[in-house]
Amino acid sequence: MSGERGTEPGLSERELAVLAVARQGWTDYGARDRAIRERLGISPTRFFQLLNALLDDERALAHDPVTVNLLRRRREARRESR
User: Against a cut of 0.85, is the pTM above it?
Assistant: First the structure.
């Protein structure tokens, strides 16, 4: 199952970094936002845009199924609570 984004089968370094930050399981959102800015050089808003796209990417699921499935469940729970 290759992704529709480009011809490269694996995730980019940036995509891997986004998953790594998401995997941290932050409880201090201020620290999370600082880490996003410092490690990735992007805003938290852009981080979540990239992360949401990754949650729908089968390459991300293959790379880190535990994190992706956990975040998919959380996203779905938020959608259902609206």
Answer: no
